[in-house]
Write a structure and sequence with these properties.
Blueprint: E1 2-6, E2 19-30, E3 33-35, H1 46-55, E4 59-65, E5 73-74, E6 91-92, E7 102-104, H2 108-118, E8 122-126, H3 133-146, E9 151-155, H4 157-161, H5 163-167, E10 174-176, H6 181-192, E11 205-209, E12 212-214, E13 239-240, E14 243-248, E15 251-252, E16 269-270, H7 273-285, E17 290-293, H8 302-312, E18 318-320, H9 332-341, E19 345-351, H10 355-360, H11 366-378, E20 382-389, H12 396-407, E21 412-417, H13 425-430, H14 456-477, H15 492-495, H16 498-510, E22 514-517, E23 522-525, H17 530-540, E24 544-546, E25 553-555
Parallel strand pairs: 2-4, 2-8, 8-9, 9-10, 14-17, 17-18, 19-20, 20-21
Antiparallel strand pairs: 1-2, 3-7, 5-7, 6-22, 10-11, 11-12, 13-14, 15-16, 22-23, 24-25
């Protein structure tokens, strides 16, 4: 362990002396990920900040983000060969999707060199998603290769759900299950005092002795008013647009059990308003200009939420909630308060416009959102509505109806391809215990069909269709005076680029998807379901598409 020397000004028996305190040097790590895309405005390491703040009094702490603000590296070889037909380089289309597979963050040697330079005693790694858990394990491997004496700890959703899987790695010494502030504090304190042997007795800490594993229950924090010390990271490293941003929690947990959600079972709890007020002040002191709420259920208690909003009045902070806002119990007065507090864009989670689909998923609040729509359309908010494509029991007609419904509203469409989330009811029914061979496929970009009525080709078709609808909304907002969908063919946005014009023309007149192959100078078919496109245009005939930022519309003829 590292040594800190303290030389107090007092003397004992007229002889000055020094106190030697052994302090653990802890490195908290956000690992890189590998995927077809990343969301740079979703990488703020709030969970690591909570841990760091809790153990600051007993440890030498630093946070190392191996993912953010690093140039992505193209990986020519990846585990998704079956997607090469869909994701291709060298294609030109106004409806672009993914093309390359990347590593977002440091490579192995960079991580190893950085840890060697910092000489930690403990390396604690955040492992949030099962599908990225192998990248997290790489960090632990790096640490053990730097020095076998480094104690490695893994925490997050994946270790909470699958502690045995993580502990079986030769590179992991301990696993934290559930909310980690108190278990990690007690573990570090035990290591500092040489009591690693009794670490297995700490609630929320899983350990191993040879082949024997000790698996603890899931820890839930009694006090969630701890304020994370944001000075431990550089605020300029995390930006939304030109603003320094931070994640923020006003509550923890969720009382619902949606069939598609894999959140660990922790109860819903609210923070004290006093602690929230103090944290807002500290955010302003830390040069934060934007706040994104990460609560699972930010608006569950409308009265409490409105009290929280009042604390943000006059701060000048831009507010958002990209996790999606629960519409249950909300009303126009609450939305007015949200605007006054600093919200300008809203993200609602609809799942599906069909009540029967949402009821099968155990998802409440569909009718509540629909009742808010007239107000939202007339308000200054920019609203994005997220829905899921590919749910079990969801029919192609259900997805088409959702798209048609939303395209006629002043909202942006936010499609989410369904994926099997570990610990969810659907995951247990379809995958069960045989999940490990498919660990890389538990992500939306893998487009894994969980519904025989919606094969991968249909999923891809729907994504392209939604991108087209959002493109049309953007054209409508430009105020070019187009009145019908077929007028797009002659719109200057497309006519000035010949290949773009042809792609739009083929979609609207032939109901097919093509892309332009610039290398060979010809048009090639996209993998898609033409019958699905025809069905959409048949059902949408006579309806309207409304802009995202304006109330302007055009007709589908």
């Amino acid at each position: 362990m590292k040594v800190k020397w303290y030389n107090p000004s007092f003397t004992y028996a007229r002889r000055p002396f020094s106190i030697i305190i052994y302090v653990v040097k802890v490195l908290l790590v956000q690992p890189p990920i590998e995927d077809f895309y990343d969301t740079p405005i979703r990488t703020y390491p709030l969970a690591l900040l909570y841990l760091a703040t809790k153990i600051q009094p007993i440890a030498d702490i630093s946070i190392l983000d191996f993912r953010t603000n690093r140039k992505p590296k193209v990986l020519r070889h990846h585990p998704f060969r079956e997607l090469e037909h869909y994701y291709r380089e060298g294609t030109s289309t106004p409806l672009s999707f993914f093309a390359r597979y990347y590593r977002f963050g440091c490579d192995y040697n960079e991580m190893k060199n950085e840890m060697r330079r910092r000489t930690p005693d403990v390396v604690a790694v955040s492992s949030l998603f099962t599908t990225y858990s192998l990248e997290a394990l790489e960090v632990a491997q790096c640490a053990k290769e730097v020095s076998p004496e480094i104690v490695t700890v893994m925490g997050g959703t994946h270790p909470t759900l699958f502690p045995e899987h993580v502990l079986k790695s030769p590179y992991v010494d301990y696993v934290i299950r559930g909310e980690g502030e108190t278990p990690f504090f007690r573990l570090v304190a035990a290591l500092e005092q040489g009591g690693a042997a009794c670490a297995g007795e700490i609630e929320g800490v899983c350990s191993k002795s040879g082949p024997d594993l000790h698996i603890s229950g899931i820890h839930v924090e009694n006090n969630i008013d701890l304020i994370p010390d944001r000075k431990l990271v550089n605020p300029g490293d995390y930006r939304i647009g030109k603003k320094n941003y931070t994640f923020f929690l006003t509550s923890r947990g969720c009382p619902f059990h949606c069939a598609f959600c894999g959140r660990p079972p922790v109860p819903y709890r609210r923070r004290s308003l006093k602690s929230i007020e103090q944290e807002i002040s500290q955010c302003l002191d830390a040069n934060i200009q934007a706040v994104d709420f990460e609560d699972d259920m930010l608006t569950l208690d409308p009265g409490y939420f409105r009290q929280v909003l009042k604390l943000f009045h006059g701060t000048g902070l831009t507010l958002s909630a990209m996790n999606g806002i629960y519409a249950g119990g909300m009303d126009a007065a609450t939305l007015d308060d949200m605007f006054a507090a600093g919200f300008r864009r809203l993200n609602f989670s609809l799942v599906d416009a069909s009540q029967s689909v949402t009821e099968k998923q155990g998802r409440p609040c569909g009718p509540d959102f629909l009742s808010l729509l007239p107000f939202l359309e007339s308000s200054p908010f920019l609203t994005e509505v997220h829905f899921i494509i590919g749910l079990p029991d969801q029919r192609p007609e259900d997805v088409i109806n959702t798209i048609i419904f939303l395209m006629g509203k002043r909202v942006l469409l936010g499609p989410s391809l369904f994926y099997l989330a570990p610990n969810s009811t659907i995951f247990s029914q379809i995958v069960g215990d045989a999940w490990e061979p498919n660990i890389k496929s538990m992500r939306s970009s893998a487009m894994v069909p969980a519904n025989s009525d919606l094969p991968r080709k249909s999923l891809y078709t729907f994504i392209k269709l939604v991108r087209f609808i959002n493109l049309v909304k953007n054209v409508i907002d430009q105020g070019d005076g187009i009145e019908t969908l077929n007028d797009l063919i002659n719109n200057q946005r497309f006519t000035r680029i010949s290949w773009s014009h042809e792609i739009i023309r083929v979609l609207l007149t032939e109901k097919r998807l093509v892309y332009y192959d610039g290398e060979h100078g010809n048009f090639l078919p996209e993998p898609h379901d033409p019958e699905l496109l025809k069905l959409f245009f048949q059902r949408a005939k006579g309806t309207a598409i409304r802009g995202f930022k304006t109330m302007n519309t055009l007709a589908i003829d």
